[in-house]
Amino acid sequence: MLATALRRLSLFGAAALLAGCGQIVPEPEDLPPPGVAAEISRGPDIRTLSFTDEDARGALVSFRASCPQLLRREDASGLIEPAAWRGVCDLAATWPANDAARFFTQHFETAQLRDGRAFATGYFEPSIEGSRTRLPGYDVPVYAMPDDLVRAWPKDMPESERTGRPPLGRINEQGEYELYYDRAAIEDGALAGRGLEIAWAKDPIEFFFLQIQGSGMLRAPDGSIMRIGYAGQNGREYVGIGGVMRERGLLGDGPGQYAGSMQGIVRYLREHPEEGRELMRLNKSWIFFRELSTGPVGAMGVEVTEGNTVATDPAYIPLGAPVWLDLDRDVADGLWVAQDTGGAIKGPNRFDTFWGNGDRAAEIAGGMSGRGQAYVLLPRGTLERRGTR
């Protein structure tokens, strides 16, 4: 279950980051069974949705990029057969970008899942100081996936409890399974000297939060950029330090407390280096990276794009489907394409919006906590074939 919860970190997972920074990310309640289409009803006439031409162009580009995967992926949601997308995907391949709005209004219809009441957070691609080679002051290793990280059953686990995939761990010198090195052990050098370093970061606090995002950019002193993305995880438990700090009374509005925000948490970590180090080590999870030749890639294997990609729960919304959001955070209103997933993104109306990189992206994503209405866009005629009123 932990590995599933952390899979989103391959795609930078801000939901976990936001939860750790004190924003309230509600747990889904009373969800329909995964793998079964949620209660579905017909949404409003798509022509009444007020998306702009620019919004439609971005969504068309993202939808077109998703089509190859959309047509061959199994749909866990039960909403629609993959082959039913072929007609609109064929049209998207040659549809002119300057007429994108008509593509959606003419060939799609809206569907509401359950009550359609949406909750959305945001995520982004962080950028920190780093270098491909170790330089003075650049001492935080960025590790590739180690070859001794394996899935196996503990020797003392009864056969009756061995269900699903075996847990991640390592085989020790005695040939027995044990948990893999945690954050503290790795920081203390458990992986040093094995040639796993693909880069070096300058600031351990910045790298800690980049690991939570799961992907990002390293800016070298010479101005060059190295993009890194999720390669794997050590199988150890994730702990949101923001929640721990709040429980300990370190965050809040009182005297001596720090603001319950990313800025407040980072300020505490810098002003209390020893206590901060121990706090970060409570999060035993460690993310391994690989170099990316393109921008960050989502759960579909498609490059995610600013303002167009949204993470959804594929048990309810097919990956690749367009989604309409109308939230109390106007910046997130409009058309998105479900190209990503997340461990914290559970339920038919839970979303995580992607904002690219840079200061503006960090500001929007860090403050994104929007509520409103959501509709899924399906090829016209889908609801009639389903018998949906």
From TrEMBL:
Signal peptide span: 1-19
InterPro entries membership: 3D_dom, MltA, MltA_B, RlpA-like_sf
Keywords linked to the UniProt accession: Cell wall biogenesis/degradation, Lyase, Signal
Name of the top EC class for this enzyme: lyase
Membrane-spanning parts: none
Pfam family, one: 3D
Record's keyword annotation contains Signal: yes
Origin: domain of life: Bacteria
Residue ranges of domain Lytic transglycosylase MltA in the record: 127-290
EC number: 4.2.2.n1
Catalytic activity annotation: Exolytic cleavage of the (1->4)-beta-glycosidic linkage between N-acetylmuramic acid (MurNAc) and N-acetylglucosamine (GlcNAc) residues in peptidoglycan, from either the reducing or the non-reducing ends of the peptidoglycan chains, with concomitant formation of a 1,6-anhydrobond in the MurNAc residue
Keyword Cell wall biogenesis/degradation: yes
Protein name: peptidoglycan lytic exotransglycosylase
Organism (species): Blastomonas marina
Top-level taxonomy: Bacteria, Pseudomonadati, Pseudomonadota, Alphaproteobacteria, Sphingomonadales
